[in-house]
What we know:
This protein has 10 helices and no strands. The longest helix is centred in the middle third of the chain and has 31 residues, at 107-137. By secondary structure, the protein is mainly α. It is globular. The protein has one domain (2-188).
Amino acid sequence: MQNLLILFIVIGYLSGSIPFGYLIGKLKNIDVRKQGSGNIGGTNVARTLGFKYGVLVGVLDILKAIIPIYIAGRYLTQDWQMALVSISPVIGHIFPVWLKFKGGKGVATVAATIFMILGLKYSLIFLAIWILALFTLKIMSLTNLIIILSLPILFWMQTKSNAYVMLAFVYILLIWWAHRENIKRLRQGIEPKIIK
């Protein structure tokens, strides 16, 4: 079982490392790392290539995390095991081996875990709250930084699992670290709004 856990963690990391934003940009002969914020995630792809490509990247980034988590869930039974598998695509997305460990912000891959843990009903409620917050704050990074803080409470309410609560706190640390440049711009008042 230990070897199986390690296998799923490696698969999760490698899957999370697939830089869909970068690859789709390359198909359009554009290096998204040299455009806008320089990020390979859906938000910067939307700014650089257009909304539909941003959505496509967002969906693919969610799927590359959901698929290994779902498969692992068919073999692993303990919460701490699933927590380790769940975080591996997020780490892969933020630190992808294919791009010299310089990747995206990890929000879409975290969203995959939220969906897998909360289920469809509560994930849709969470999504509605996130959309409302985005239209209120009008800044993607600020919305993500605030909404992510609710994860420990949500995970506890849904699972009563210490492993998943710890996972939520690690997600907060990772997301805030990945958004460190955004935080600097927010403090300077120059972070661009996604909604005018």
